[in-house]
Amino acid sequence: MNYSIPPWPHAPGPDPREIKHQFLIRNDVIFLNHGSFGACPRVVFETYQSWQRELEEQPVEFLGRRFLGLMSEARAKLAEFVGSDPDGLIFVPNATYGMNVVARSLAHTLPLGFGDEILTTDHEYGAIDRVWRFIAQHVGARLRRVTLPSTLSTPEELAETILAEWNPRTRIFSLSWVTSPTALVMPIKMLVEEARRRGVVTVIDAAHAPGLLDESEFRLEALGADFVVGNCHKWMLAPKGAGFLYAAPRGRETLEPFVVSWGYQADPPGRSRFLDQHGYTGTTDPAAYLSVPTAIEFLRNPDWVLIRERCRTRAAMVRRRVAEIVGSEPERFCPDSSQWFRQMVACPLPSCDALGLQKALWERHRVEVPCTRLGGSIDAVHADDPRRWLRVSVQGYTTDHDLETLLGALREEWPRYART
Ligand SMILES: Cc1ncc(COP(=O)(O)O)c(C=O)c1O
């Protein structure tokens, strides 16, 4: 190997090979895409399955008598983890669902009208962009996406670029806390503060943020946004199907139930109409939600701080090594700083057949890693933007051998897929 960058430095904390045993990820897969759907530790998955078993053993006892109490306990644990008042937080199956609840409600209750503007950016997740497209088309509002600079320097400068696009018709501002195609941590606090000053409703997509950001940074009430949707099944390591929706006190009454059930005009009413209306949506399997406290316990293992730091350092090194192989200049995209990215990093790729490359990495090398573009894989909105990234997630179970395998595979495949 002739990399000019030195080998991976020793890092304190448990050996990733041992951590890998604690997960269910297959040994024959080099799994570098934690970002898309997460991965769940064994202990959390076993908790999940034991809740499912308990439900099936006595469904009436479980769903008829215990459901609300169990959900309330799990919600309280999650609320503490994300810095929320437990009465302002509901479980939803995923961030997309939560965003639908918010967007569809705001269209009626804000209300959003003809000529009003929904402002977002061109780095949002494709499905969420579609939610806003759908709403805009239905009410005659305008969806405008700020084009983020192709070179990022400071979070303050980026916040100013975004703010310069606001105008008096901007009613809703929707932004990812951590972007999907580019893995960037957005200057969310500054933008939310300014939105509050201007009376613009803020809807934050935190699909990636909890568990990827430090617990001390991810405090929902302190953030002051109107609505935040997020996932527990990505970086919080919960089983699939566990997301949340946070609403600030001023926003709770404006949310309409997406599914009308017993909680609408609840008889007798509980202490919170918000919880009544959104807390029970019909017969369901709540095992993923009820496993969230176990995932939180897993994350709070003191070693996890060391593990995340090791992952973040490795992610930065991977970015440099990928740049050497493909001949890109990642610093021209964003500085090598934890202000901009953590253990998930987007490595810029020069012009190439990115989908072909992703397919080859998987099919020929068993390396699971996405090549990303703005707006998702097939999207007319961003069809003209030629930029592509290799988005690498480094998780506690990622070994140095996994990263070397990626780099070796990329070195082999790149000449086939690069466009000169
Ligand atoms: C930024 C962002 N928002 C929303 C989502 C949607 O998450 P889910 O499919 O769990 O709703 C994703 C998924 O990767 C994402 O990256």
UniProtKB/TrEMBL annotation:
Keywords: Aminotransferase, Pyridoxal phosphate, Transferase. This is Aminotransferase class V. GO terms for molecular function: transaminase activity. The keyword Transferase applies. InterPro entries: Aminotrans_V_dom, PyrdxlP-dep_Trfase, PyrdxlP-dep_Trfase_major, PyrdxlP-dep_Trfase_small. Residues 60-406 form the Aminotransferase class V domain. The keyword Cell membrane does not apply. It holds the Pfam family Aminotran_5.
